[in-house]
Request: fold
Amino acid sequence: MSNTVANDHLILIVSPDAENSRQLANSLDDCACQVESVAVSDEALQKAQSLHPDVVIVDASDGEFDPFDLSWQIRAKSDRSRAPIFVVSCCQPSDIDATKMETGCCEEAANTQCLESLLQRVTTCLNQPLGKAVDVVVAENLEIDRGRHRVIVNGELVQLTPTEFRLLWELANAPGYAFSRHELAENCLAPNTLAGVRTVDAHIKSLRRKLGECSRLIETVRGIGYRFYEQTGSITHG
Reply:
């Protein structure tokens, strides 16, 4: 498989560790892309808005910021909201599961100790046309807009925390699928969150309260976890 892509692509690396940033940039040399590196989350948001990167790689190794919250902020504030975001752990392979995350926040999670695998994933994303991902899910009087990081119930904007939004999107983007609490904790909570599985119930309770009459769309699956009501309509923006 060739790792070559068009050289007009831009990859944004967010890493507070200079050595990790260099290692990641070196692994992307074969992509023949432009690479921009930043060290802090505020600068990452500014660069995402001004440069419109095609791929964002967030280094979660040292815990200086919540990589998932940063990813959601990039999605909310960047015009290219569908750009794939990879959350990687350069030094601690056990921190992040290497399975695909369908939260809309981080399309892939990878361990950069296997840089060739990361390179292949990035290359695959860069060679795929934009516009295939579902951006908006509509169910009855509930509208969830991933690109704008916005939830509307009965025409009114509902303010959710980043974690609540991730949970809602995870459920709504797979209507009818019964997610275990462990899956939701793994996919939607920050790495190493204490008592992650137990806190899912608390977040769901708060989410339901904010959704009002639409709270019934989040169904409890006894002995397993939660699922989203299956009869939904999904709108894809190209």
